[in-house]
Design goal:
With 754 residues, the protein is α/β, with parallel strands linked by helices. β2 (239-247), α12 (253-262) and β3 (267-270) form a beta-alpha-beta unit. α2 (13-26) crosses α7 (116-127) and α5 (76-86) packs across α6. The longest helix is centred in the N-terminal third of the chain and has 20 residues, at 132-151.
Length: 754
């Protein structure tokens, strides 16, 4: 990133100066390593890592580019304002207080002129400030600075810190595999992935686009007249006619599209994200988050209390998830059937749907070699007598891959891009248009004097071959919206739907995380630790689970315990920051630090009126369940043999387990599991969002009926996690696919009757 790029961005040189100072406060250059008792000071890579500051790596410029080109958040302008204030003396005094004062005239100084040690104290004080905006400022910088620093790569795809962290970067076997695939160009399923023939890039010339669509049997036409020479939804650049248009290609949309196409109907899939074929994957954390995650992987709630991860690529969340394939629990089905009067969920039809989608994904429960974090979870539970079980996954038993959150290198993880969308392509009845944004669902009043409205298609926008924005329309007999629980509500609102339940009842499965450090060598006894060769980022991401806090037999609103996939960027963004040296020492232990999380089946809910306008309130019962989970996971880590344990609490406390007596251990566990969750004290994460357009039997309390069709507009179906009636309490992929399978049958019935 060059200075010229920044000048044309939205940050001034003064704001960039403040941003640079903040970055170097979080990740400074440290030279006095001999004074620190830990770490290998004879290791050149470790010393280089300590001595490299954020600005030396170009991190401020990269963040400035992201602010100008990627980040979208209601508080973004406040962040820019804070950077401007910190570039002034008065503004710095307002945000930093008396700690910013100098003993020399003019006494007031801007942030960049404050001594580094003083800046560190100031930034640390923001973390626990009684002023919410200062906490938000700290939290935003705490996420952005280390995340960018540890994910930046040079032209060779390397980061200068990775060696010191014990991180290999992309899967070492991947480069070899890519070369082998390039040597197999004659094999249809290898060089580009199985969807290649069905992907139509809208960055081609219009002639090529028309030809590809017409080859597949779609009718394509150009309107004869323009509305004052301007493209609009009333006068699109061109019109595509089909039987069904599906907006979104994830676990919901992908299933429906594949079923309809296999039944002989012409199906067009519109996907906002890009298509990254197998050989085009980078397995690099930063570029992948930018390319394959909603909001470049940097979504948060409006108050920045919860970090949200959601897929935005062909295959949706199923392309970048952690493989867990758990069927809808029986107590959840019972609740939906009895309390919500949705008979579907106690029917043989739904049970059959779960069986079919699991078979399609090749779901199985065998593990040939368990990864480091799951091994720790399983061992700790067994030592304590806690229940622990193997998680069914949609990958084979020997799928020892920790990079699946960055795309599946060989297609052995069976997301929709490897299953249902393959059916779509092989049927010859479907096409997928990536990198296009659905603008609105087009609907009109029916001709039967009923006053009801009927969906007739979707208007969408894309960048053409010249980089100009084009607006086009799909005319269809039925329309399926499957944009996910964060994006479907905003599309419906833009389309003129008035149901007050749209965007409400959002559930997030809030997650809190604990960590334990397991060095590969024990200095005191000179013993090699068990599984010393294993690294935290290798192996199946999620293969073990404990229901010790789940309460499945009671209210059903407890929590489950699992492990996350954390590469250095997200690892650093979640780890507590108490000083520049401390975070670097924590990061130097990365490869042997195990994380275990607690996921609550939340009774609390929020609102999602767009992916960048999300609010959520944690219920007190959910908070208590998460606290119990913190207590259990700290014990699990200690029982598994951790040398050091801790939570992600902003104060960054930890305990050296081997040096603590029983009383000290119990006190630490009690204190850390009693902390207030939320309000920026402990990072809360969410990788599961659901319920924002929930299914029901009454239009006053729901958005769609039991067939998945909206109450307001006939022929408009929803097929994603937004229709789920309540939080599920387990990973939702199987549930989303099973509900969508059932919805697809309703759509088929409608199409067959037309």
């Amino acid at each position: 990133m060059t200075q010229k790029n920044i000048e044309f961005g939205t940050l001034s040189s003064y704001q960039l100066e403040s941003l640079t100072s903040i970055c170097d406060t979080f990740l400074p250059s440290i030279h006095h390593v001999n004074s620190y008792e830990e770490g290998n000071i004879d290791d050149d890579s470790f010393i280089k890592f300590l001595q490299t500051s954020a600005s030396m790596n170009g991190t401020p410029q990269q963040i400035a580019w992201m602010i100008s080109n990627r980040l979208q958040h209601p508080r973004l302008n406040l962040f820019k304002l804070a950077l401007w204030l910190l570039s002034t003396r008065i503004g710095t005094f307002i945000l930093c207080g008396k700690a910013s004062l100098s003993y020399q005239f003019p006494y007031l100084q801007n942030f960049s002129k404050i001594l580094p040690s003083k800046r560190e104290e100031i930034v640390k004080s923001w973390a626990t400030s009684c002023f919410k905006l200062l906490r938000i400022l700290f939290f935003a910088a705490k996420i952005l600075v280390p995340l960018v620093f540890f994910t930046q790569v040079n032209e060779k795809g390397q980061n200068s810190s990775w060696k010191a962290l014990g991180y290999s970067g992309p899967d070492p076997d991947f480069k070899k595999q890519k070369q082998e695939n390039m040597d197999c160009k004659e094999r249809d399923d290898q060089p580009f992935g199985p969807l290649y023939e069905g992907i139509i890039s809208l960055k081609n010339s219009q002639k090529i686009i028309f030809h590809r669509l017409q080859e597949l049997g779609f009718i394509v036409s150009k309107p004869h007249n323009l509305n004052n020479g301007r493209r609009s939804t009333e006068c699109p650049a061109f019109v595509i006619e089909c039987d069904a248009v599906v907006v979104g290609s994830g676990s919901g949309g992908g299933v429906i599209a594949g079923i309809l196409a296999n039944a002989g109907h012409k199906v067009l899939v519109l996907e906002k994200g890009s298509y990254i074929a197998r050989t085009n994957l980078s397995l690099l954390e930063g570029p992948t988050m930018d390319q394959m995650y909603l909001g470049s992987g940097l979504l948060t709630t409006k108050d920045m209390d919860i970090i949200l991860l959601a897929g935005s690529t062909v295959g949706g969340g199923s392309t970048i998830n952690w493989s867990a394939s758990i069927r809808t629990p029986q107590h959840v089905l019972k609740e939906w059937s009895e309390s919500y009067k949705l008979e579907l969920f106690q029917s043989e039809f739904y049970k059959g749907a779960m069986k079919i989608v699991c078979a399609k994904m090749g779901v199985q429960c065998e593990i040939e070699d368990e990864g480091f974090q799951n091994m720790i979870l399983r061992k700790g539970c067994q030592e304590l007598g806690y229940p622990v079980e193997t998680i069914p996954t949609n990958a084979p038993s020997d799928h020892y891959c920790g990079w699946c959150s960055l795309g599946c290198k060989d297609g052995r993880k069976k997301g929709t891009a490897e299953t249902w969308l393959v059916d779509l392509v092989k049927s010859g009845n479907g096409a997928i248009l990536p990198e296009c944004e659905a603008l609105e669902v087009i609907h009109e009043e029916k001709n039967d004097n009923s006053g009801k409205r009927k969906a007739i298609g979707v208007a969408f926008a894309f960048q053409n071959i010249k980089g100009m924005r084009e607006i086009c329309m799909v005319k269809s007999k039925v329309t399926i919206v499957a944009c996910g629980a964060l994006s479907t509500p905003s599309l419906l609102k833009r389309s003129g739907l008035k149901n007050p339940n749209i965007g409400r009842n959002l559930h997030l499965h809030p997650v809190v995380i604990t960590w334990g450090y397991f060095p590969d060598f024990q200095p005191i006894s000179n013993e090699i630790w068990p599984e010393a060769e294993k690294k935290c980022y290798e192996g199946g991401i999620m293969t073990a689970m404990s229901k010790v806090v789940a309460n499945f037999e009671g209210s059903g609103y407890g929590a489950i315990i699992q492990t996350p996939g954390l590469h250095p960027g997200m690892f650093s963004a979640l780890m507590p920051w108490v000083s520049g040296l401390d975070i670097k020492m924590r990061m130097s232990k990365y490869s042997r630090t195990a994380h275990i999380f607690t996921l609550a089946r939340d009774m609390g809910s929020g609102e999602a009126f767009s992916p960048y306008s999300i609010s959520y309130k944690l219920d007190q019962i959910d908070e208590e369940n998460l606290k119990v989970g913190l207590e259990k996971t700290l014990r699990i880590l200690a029982a598994a043999g951790a040398e050091e344990i801790g939570t992600q609490h902003v104060k960054g406390r930890s305990l050296k387990v081997k040096e603590a007596n029983l009383e000290e251990f119990e006190r630490f566990v009690k204190e850390e599991s009693s902390i207030k969750i939320g309000k920026h004290s402990v990072p809360i994460c969410s990788a599961h969002q659901m319920g924002s357009c929930r299914m029901g039997v009454d239009p006053t309390t729901s958005v769609v009926n039991s067939k998945g069709e909206t109450w307001e507009v006939e022929g408009l179906f929803l097929g994603d996690s937004s229709v789920i009636p309540t939080a599920i309490g387990v990973n939702p992929m199987v549930t989303i696919q099973a509900i969508s399978y059932c919805t697809a049958q309703s759509v088929l019935q409608l199409l067959n009757n037309q």
